[in-house]
Amino acid sequence: MVVTSHDVARLAGVSQPTVSRALRDSPKVSEETKRRVREAASALGYVPSETGRALSSGRTRRIGLLLTDLENQFYPHVIAPMHRELEALDYQLVLQTETDDTGRVAERLLANGLDGVLLATTTVDSVLPVRLRDRGVPFVYFNRTSESVEADSAEVDPGGGLRQLADRILGLGHRRVGAIFGPRNTSTAEQRETALRDALAVGGVSISAALSYRGPFDFATGHAGALHLLQREDRPGVVVCGNDVVAYGALNAARELDLRVPQDVSVVGFDDLPAARWPLLQLTTVAFDLDAMARRAASLLVDRIEDPAAPFRHERFPSRLVERGTLGAAP
Amino acid sequence: MVVTSHDVARLAGVSQPTVSRALRDSPKVSEETKRRVREAASALGYVPSETGRALSSGRTRRIGLLLTDLENQFYPHVIAPMHRELEALDYQLVLQTETDDTGRVAERLLANGLDGVLLATTTVDSVLPVRLRDRGVPFVYFNRTSESVEADSAEVDPGGGLRQLADRILGLGHRRVGAIFGPRNTSTAEQRETALRDALAVGGVSISAALSYRGPFDFATGHAGALHLLQREDRPGVVVCGNDVVAYGALNAARELDLRVPQDVSVVGFDDLPAARWPLLQLTTVAFDLDAMARRAASLLVDRIEDPAAPFRHERFPSRLVERGTLGAAP
C-alpha cells in the first residue's frame, strides 16, 4: 500500500495542504501541528514526494538566481539574504550561472522547472528578459535593469550617495578625479557614472577620458585599472570605483606601487560590503541596504509568481556616503 | 494533443534520453544533435517537464549543499567549483542552510526531493548522517567528517603543510606560539590541532592553554581571539589560525592594536583563499587544492547516487606551506 499525504492528514486530523506545509517546515504552521503531522507521517511510514507535490500544484517552489561569477565577493551578501527570505516563504534557491548564449540559458531555466528567476547580472542589451517573458517565466531584476521588458525590480538609487561623495571630493580640493567604471552595457554602471559626472559638474570638475577605466565589477578590473591610472604622469588624486570589490583591487594596486592611501591617492567604493569596515581597508564608500534589497527582490518574485496580473513594482533603495579612511585631501 | 519528448525524439531522429540530455544542455551531447533537438522541440512546441522527468526516472537531478553561514568568505570558493562540476554532470545545486534541529534538517532535505547531499559543516557529534543513512539519502562529507556513519569523503590532510609550518616557526626562533583553533566538535579543527601540536613537539615547543583560543571558523573568531591573545603580557610571537578567514580577523586585530606584522607578531592561515595573495594581506598560509577537493566531493556524490553499492572512497588532499609576508622571526 502506498501511503499518501491524505492518509497522514486523516491520522493527524488536519487538512492535506497542512501536511505539505508542516513537512516543509513552513512558518505558517504551528509547532504543535508540525509535531502531530510528523508523528502521523512517522507512524504510517510516509515519505513526502516532492514530485507528487509539483504535479498536484503545478509549482516546484524553486527559484533560480542567475549569476555570472560565483566567486565574486559581492554575491555572498546577495545569496545569503535571498536564501533566508525564500526559505521563510517556503521556496528553495537554485543557483544558475549564465553562459554566453542567452537563448540556451532560457531553455535551461525552463527545463529545470523553476517557478521564477532572479536576474542579478542583466545587461541592458540582453535578450534573456524577452525570452523569459515569451515563455511565461516570471522574473525580477536585481541590481540591474533592462528596458527591453518591464518587470518588477529592486535596485539602488545611487544619486544621494554620489552627490554627497562629489561634494566631499570637491571640498577636499580634488580636481584630477579618476574613475574605474563598471561595464557600459549595465544599468548599474550607467546610472553610477551619470550620477557621479552630474554631481562633479556642479563644481566644474569633469572626469577626462584619460582618467577613466572600464571593466567588469571585479577585483581584477580594480587592480588593472588602478595600476593603469596611478602610473600616469597626471595621476588622479582620487579614484572612484564602480563598487567595493573593484576598490579592493585598486587599494591593492596602490600598495604594490608603494602609494599611501589617502596621502598619495584616495580610493572610494560603492556597496559598503562587510570588509569595507576592516581596519586594514577602512574603505570610504557609498552604502545602501543591500540585505534588504536582496530580500525584497526575492519577495517581489514570490508575489509575482502568486499574482501574475499585479501591477509592476520598481523599488529603488536610497544611498549615502560612509566616510572611513581612504578619502583625504587632494595631494 | 500533448507533445512528449518521444515526439521530439522521433522528429529529431534521436533516442528519447538524448532529447532530455540535449535540452538540459548536457556536455555529453554534440552541438549538432542539440541543435537538431532544439529545432524539433521548437517546431512541435514542446516544453520539457522537469516534473515528468522526475517521475519517469525517480531522480530529480538536484543535489543539496548543506552550509551554516552563507556569508563566510570560505564558501564562494567551495560553491563555485561544486556548481561547475555538478553542471557538467547534469545536476543542479540547491543551497540548504543548517538549523539547530538536525532532525528537521533531514526531513526538509527529504521533503525537498534531493537526490543527495553534500555535507560541508558536519560536526563529529551530529546525528544528521545517521538520519540520512536511515532514510536512504546518499551523502558525501566535504572538508569535515564524522565517525558515526561511513560515507564517501573529500578532505584535507593537514599533516604535510603543518609539519613544514612547524619547522619554519621553530627555525625562526619562535617559542611562544599561540593558536586560534576551530570548534572542538569538528574533525577539521581536531586534525589541524593535533598535527600542529605533534609537529611543534618535535622541537620541544607546546601551545599553552593560555595561548589557545577556540571558536567557529570565521572572521569574528580571529578578531576576538587575536585581541585576546595579543593584549596579554606574554603575547605570542606567532598566532597560527584555524583557517584564512580566521587569519583575516587576526590581521585586522593586530592593525587595531598597532602591532606590525610580522615584526611584532606573525600570523598564519590555512586554505590559501584568493585574498591571501592580496598585497595588503600577503598571508603566509597552508595551501591545498580547494577547487579540486570541492569538485571531487560533487563527483563522489554523483557516483554514489548512480552506484549505491560501490565501496566507500575517502580522498585526502595533500597540503603544503606557502610563505608570504606574515611569518617572520620571533620578536
Overview of the structural elements:
2 copies of one chain form a homodimer. The first copy, chain A, has 331 residues and is α/β, with parallel strands linked by helices. The first copy, chain A, has 3 domains: 5-57, 434 Repressor (Amino-terminal Domain) (Orthogonal Bundle); 62-156 and 290-317, 3-Layer(aba) Sandwich (Rossmann fold), CATH 3.40.50; 157-288, Rossmann fold (3-Layer(aba) Sandwich), CATH 3.40.50. Helices cover 42% and strands 17% of the residues of chain A. Chain A is built from 12 helices and 12 strands. In chain A, the strands form 2 sheets. Chain A has a 6-stranded parallel β-sheet, sandwiched between helices. In chain A, α5 packs across α12 (290-306). The model of chain A has no long low-confidence stretch (mean pLDDT 90). At the A-B interface, α4, α5, β2, α6 and α11 of A face α4, α5, β2, α6 and α11 of B.
Quaternary organisation: homodimer
Q: How many strands, what sense, and barrel or not for the largest sheet of chain A?
A: 6 strands, parallel
Strand order of the largest sheet of chain A: 2-1-3-4-5-11
Distance between the termini of chain A: 81 Å
Number of domains of chain A: 3
Global geometry of chain A: elongated
Per DSSP, the total helix count of chain A is 12
Q: What is the CATH architecture descriptor of the largest domain in chain A?
A: 3-Layer(aba) Sandwich
> What is the CATH topology classification name of the largest domain in chain A?
Rossmann fold
From the helix content, strand content and strand pairing of chain A, which structural class follows?
alpha/beta
> Count the strands of chain A?
12
SSE series of chain A = HHHHEHEHEHEEHEHEHEHEEHEE
Can you tell me the residue ranges of chain A where pLDDT is under 50 for at least 5 consecutive residues?
Answer: none
